[in-house]
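wait is this the right file?? whatever heres the structure
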């Protein structure tokens, strides 16, 4: 299993007229955390693209439990429970201290520039394998 986390400070621009974080920003935070996870693993996302791999979102889901507000300090946690083959499934938790604000998941497929499914690069799989 792979689990990493990223700290986020809610910016004013991320809130809506009601003073709550706009719902779409959670998906952006998921992306920030996912990219950070690859950095922590030692295989930055830009390396994937330079080597001809893309990792588009195939599906996404968010469950909102409690609102976040301007200037909140949040922790976004990402977990990969299963070793990826052609797809990778990431699960997320959004926390304000110990309070769970939202959960979600994204599913991604490894593809080449022509949009065809491919296996992830061996170097990335080797890095991930040590966590499973």
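ok assuming it is, sequence goes like this
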């Amino acid at each position: 299993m792979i689990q990493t986390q990223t700290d986020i400070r809610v910016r004013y621009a991320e809130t809506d007229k009601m003073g709550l974080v706009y719902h779409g920003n959670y998906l952006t935070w998921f992306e920030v955390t996912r990219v950070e996870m690859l950095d922590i693993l030692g295989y930055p996302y830009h390396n994937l693209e330079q080597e001809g791999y893309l990792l588009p979102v195939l599906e996404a889901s968010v469950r909102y439990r409690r609102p976040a507000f301007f200037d909140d300090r949040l922790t976004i946690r990402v977990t990969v429970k299963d070793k990826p083959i052609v797809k990778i499934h990431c699960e997320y938790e959004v926390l304000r201290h110990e309070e769970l604000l939202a959960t979600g998941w994204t599913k991604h497929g490894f593809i080449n520039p022509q949009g065809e499914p491919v296996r992830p690069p061996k170097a990335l799989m080797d890095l991930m394998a040590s966590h499973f």
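The chain has one domain: 2-129. so i think its the right one actually
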